[in-house]
């Protein structure tokens, strides 16, 4: 049965400016893919990321270049040889899983053999600001179980101290986005432990991973920008105790499952993470969360208006409501996707 798909850009304004060590953004720019077999429809979303030399236009061009090859796909594993790891493959992979759930009458959990997520607490993210403003952001979270803090190389201890004082019961994840030197990391580690930091994401540039060898820190170090696919895991296990699996890096759930297994085999802890996007982007990643140690899928909390029938959040607890926008059997959403398909096909024809 022939598969057709279309891809288009969408933008989600953010609830507030989101700032990391590499810059700030006020909206989430995403690529949405809809696939159909002529009867059923599926969809997915990805977030092109400039750090990996991606843009909306480059991802749309990638997808357009494989339309003929996708028409005869038998399953998502064939995508691994058609598209490289990245957000183009992620959006298409997600859409194909959703389509398959509709075709087979089985959930993506059943199709993949993954354990259905019963309970999940996600980190909630604070973007870089002054210590006082970051403390105010932390207070708004009302003692969230897990807070993720974006930092650069400035005022690190001052910012963390302010947040820890504002939310003393919260465990903290620090995300430096490659913004520290190995020397800074070594200097700050003892005090970070005292401030209830449980994990540090990618403290050093991915070119400096080897500098972490033999460090044996009291806080988990987690590879993020250094970790893309399952092929990276064995090397990273020499330097890190954890990896951050993001489907926009693995190129979708299909490879994400392989990366999760490889990390477990290497006895590494796992964070499932995200770029800033809607619940549609989080949904495939959520399927991995039953057996991981850290979840960071709060993207929908950062946008001003999420998609309909997306995740619900209560004091850090992330839940999949019913009805839900992705990955389940049945006719839910089919009329909307068919209408959206027709709208964009008409626009392309004009």
TrEMBL record:
Organism listed in the record: Marisediminitalea aggregata
Protein residues bound to Mg(2+): 175, 201, 224
Gene Ontology BP, a term: amino acid catabolic process
Family that this chain belongs to: Belongs to the mandelate racemase/muconate lactonizing enzyme family.
Keywords: Isomerase, Magnesium, Metal-binding
Co-factor binding comment: Binds 1 Mg(2+) ion per subunit.
Active site (UniProt): 150, 246
Name assigned to this protein: Dipeptide epimerase
Residues annotated as domain Mandelate racemase/muconate lactonizing enzyme C-terminal: 131-222
Keyword Phosphoprotein: no
Needed cofactors: Mg(2+)
